[in-house]
Amino acid sequence: MKVLVNNHLVERDEASVDVEDRGYQFGDGVYEVVRLYNGQFFTYDEHIERLYASAAKIDLVIPYTKEELRKLIESLVAANNIHTGNVYLQVTRGVQNPRNHVIPDDFPLEGVLTAAAREVPRNEKQFIEGGTAITEEDVRWLRCDIKSLSLLGNIMAKNKAHQQNALEAILHRGEQVTECSASNVSIIKDGVLWTHAADNLILNGITRQVILDVARKNGVPVREADFTLTDLREADEVFISSTTIEITPITHIDGVQVGDGKRGPITAQLHSYFVEEIVRSCGELAVAK
Ligand SMILES: Cc1ncc(COP(=O)(O)O)c(C=O)c1O
């Protein structure tokens, strides 16, 4: 397996980064996960726009143009022969010796890019059968719109879900539901799709944006607005979304069944619209055996 370290493709075992990299010491950096189907990127530009936007919000300069970055990522995908899989890429603020919270203004740090690509098949069983979730207080910072490397709040919530054999942790600030530890959450109530507005309290998922787009195009009413834990518990359908899990139904929350405990009809319909978008940009998907 080959990985990218700056503009070099190197064997995974031979790759190294500096111990005084600010990404390693402070979580000072940003990242993205981009998906490929049939060897083609899906919503690549949207992910890369968000990467540069996240970087700009923390005054981090990505040391490559978007064109240069695309060539590097394409070389990584080709070197690992990825068909259906994920590219993880991150850019840190770079190496600072000695360690100091203050970002030096007298000399620019060189941002450090690392990236890895892996084959990850679509989990069609999970798309249909769904998974369970717990609810958890959202204790993260107030800039969740930045796809930051610092993910302690997300990790602790996700791990708690895992310990309770649940797929995800649905986060809430008091009564208001925000998103999940590694995905966005939407509910269907009386035929209307509800999801938190794209503000500082959530990461504006690229998958979320595609779903809202196909919902609007196909006449599913959308409300981008706060909803409460009570709305969540009384929803007809609940689903979570992200680049890797596409649209995954949530069948139980804190042990209580959602609707009839099966993927709901609007969730299924939205997923078929979503797959049409994938097929449009990446070609037909292989049928699961
Ligand atoms: C906290 C959080 N929210 C939402 C998402 C969904 O974003 P996307 O659809 O762009 O993968 C992710 C994805 O990793 C995430 O970590």
From TrEMBL:
One of its GO terms (molecular function) is pyridoxal phosphate binding. GO terms for cellular component: cytosol. It is an enzyme of class 2 (transferase). Keywords: Aminotransferase, Pyridoxal phosphate, Transferase. It catalyses: D-alanine + 2-oxoglutarate = D-glutamate + pyruvate. Pfam families: Aminotran_4 (PF01063). Its cofactor is pyridoxal 5'-phosphate. GO terms for biological process: amino acid biosynthetic process; carboxylic acid biosynthetic process; D-amino acid metabolic process. Its EC number is 2.6.1.21. Homodimer. Belongs to the class-IV pyridoxal-phosphate-dependent aminotransferase family. This is D-alanine aminotransferase. It comes from Listeria immobilis. The lineage of its organism: Bacteria, Bacillati, Bacillota, Bacilli, Bacillales.
